[in-house]
Amino acid sequence: MPADLGTLGALERACFTEPWTTSTLSAALSEEKYVILLAREAKRTLAVSAFGYAIGWNVGDEAELARVGIHPSLRGQGFGNQVTKALLEVLRERAVKKVFLEVRESNLAAHKLYEKSGFVEVGQRLNYYADGETAIIMCVEL
Question: Whose CB has fewer CB within 10 Å in the chain, the N or C terminal residue?
Answer without folding.
Answer: N
